[in-house]
Write a structure and sequence with these properties.
Number of strands of chain A: 10
Oligomer: homodimer
Order of helices and strands of chain A: EHEHEHEHEHHEHHEHEHEHE
CATH class of the largest domain in chain A: Alpha Beta
Strand content of chain A: 15-25%
Number of helices of chain A: 11
Radius of gyration of chain A: 18 Å
Helix content of chain A: 40-55%
Largest interface: A-B, 27 and 27 residues
CATH topology of the largest domain in chain A: Rossmann fold
Distance between the termini of chain A: 17 Å
Low-confidence stretches of chain A: none
Strand order of the largest sheet of chain A: 4-3-1-2-9-10
Chain lengths: 281, 281
């Protein structure tokens, strides 16, 4: 790895398109930063895969980004953040590795009035207790209820975002949580980067009293803070390039991305890469 | 590869659990056959992946099964059957390779009174025109309408099989097809091995006049015919073993399998294997 230089891009990876909600937030907070985004579309989704596999996939994605020289690595996937931050950080001690679970947990503790926090995420993230543990570390008296909602990933990708039918599906999935509203569940963490696409439906179902927390913005703020502290903010005029790498299907990526990303992605901006052959320790 | 022996198992692979509906049919038709089933749960689903990736994954799955000695290979996944049968057959000319698309197309042509056939499948299978081409080869005057229903895969895996809400979701997805009922769509092919789990909901939505075709049984019949012709039927008394290989998460596989497989799968029967490192031509 070359020495870190403020002109280098921030590397961002996700299992597929969901992390583009984090990319949006990074773009908005730091429009002058160069970014490389990798979507592991060849193996998406991660949320129903085992921790062992998710760590391996994360290590391969990180290797592909680091090969291209980056100054900071953002794991923009909750499932991977839940299990792979520590292994990645010890593999690459010179590089700051940041996930979305920590910032999401922090944000939920900040906004939660009474510490009665719900978390919705993929099966793998919930099983891992990542959010539960992170929230309880910050607020040991919090009460945390986590609910897997794997179906939301497919809904978000297929463009089923709102409307009466979507709200009925969301209500059915959230039923174990809504039955707790009487116990003053006051905050709900959207613990999967796909879920902001369903935000309005989730909000309708949960009711106005429940604050929804999406870790994208707080992650972007944490990344900016880290770059400032390490004097790595890009000061080159006219920077702000974004490049995309995918491990499968650039056409589908460009199409499904419109459900998650604020800018249009042109096909020639997307490079197809193979990362499955990377040997990881 | 050793010489083919009738005592060898039939190799069956699928992207995950869906192919277990084909395994059911094989068990029922030929209870004395040994079977090895491989579910590529590390990369499931195939239905939203590119043809290039699906062919590569199929070649790696086939290599893992052939390494274990099999007498016939069944591609129990519609998406892989749509693109990988020819590449696999030319890679392994001594071994009979059979998919589910051919038998499914054949069955639909047999039962369709007027040749107005609908096909529901994953995005990748539909895009590939696999069923459309196979049906038109058998009945050039047929009219074929294909509709991607990727959402059904998640519904089937999450155990959302029946009930009023499931029927509403199914109705919404099938709307492009049901609007054709007035044009006498008489047959509907369930062109994804996950879809039989939703059979009753699909049938309710399509109405009694539309015959549903599930390729599992016709595939099993075609496999039996091929084994008889090549004198490879297992005549060893007391055979009928079933082994399972998965590329990720044996626990999840055993749990989700109950939605698709008639027998209970015990965890020790499932072996975890890594096939991603297999170099394919």
């Amino acid at each position: 790895m070359t020495e870190l230089d403020s002109n280098l891009p921030i590397g961002v990876f996700d299992s597929g398109v969901g992390g583009l909600t984090v990319l949006n937030a990074l773009r908005k907070a730091m429009p002058n930063e160069n970014l490389i985004y990798l979507g592991d579309t060849a193996r998406v989704p991660y949320g129903t895969k085992s921790s062992v596999s998710v760590v391996k996939y994360a290590e391969q994605a990180a290797a592909a980004l680091i090969e291209r020289d980056i100054k900071l690595l953002v794991v923009a996937c909750n499932t991977a953040s839940a299990v792979a931050i520590e292994p990645l950080q010890s593999l690459y001690p010179q590089l700051k590795v940041m996930g979305v679970v920590g910032p999401g947990a922090e944000a939920s503790c900040k906004v939660s009035a009474e510490g009665r926090i719900g978390v919705i995420a993929t099966e793998s993230t919930v099983k891992n207790n990542a959010y539960q543990d992170a929230i309880l570390r910050l607020n040991p008296s919090a009460s945390v209820t986590a609910q897997p909602c794997s179906l939301f990933v497919a809904l978000a990708e297929e463009g089923w975002h709102s409307g009466e039918l979507v709200e009925r599906i969301v209500a059915e999935c959230l039923q174990p949580l809504t039955s707790q509203v009487s116990d003053h569940l006051d905050t709900l963490v959207l613990g999967c980067t796909h879920f902001p696409a369903l935000k309005s439906a989730i909000s309708h179902v949960m009711g106005d009293d429940v604050v929804l927390v999406d870790s994208a913005e707080t992650t972007a703020a944490a990344v900016e803070k880290s770059l400032v502290e390490s004097n790595l903010i890009n000061k080159q005029p006219g920077a702000g390039d974004v490049r995309f790498l995918v491990t499968d299907g650039p056409e589908r990526f460009a199409r499904v991305a419109t459900n998650f990303y604020d800018e249009e992605i042109q096909l020639p901006e997307i490079q197809l890469v193979d990362i499955q052959h990377f040997k990881v320790p």
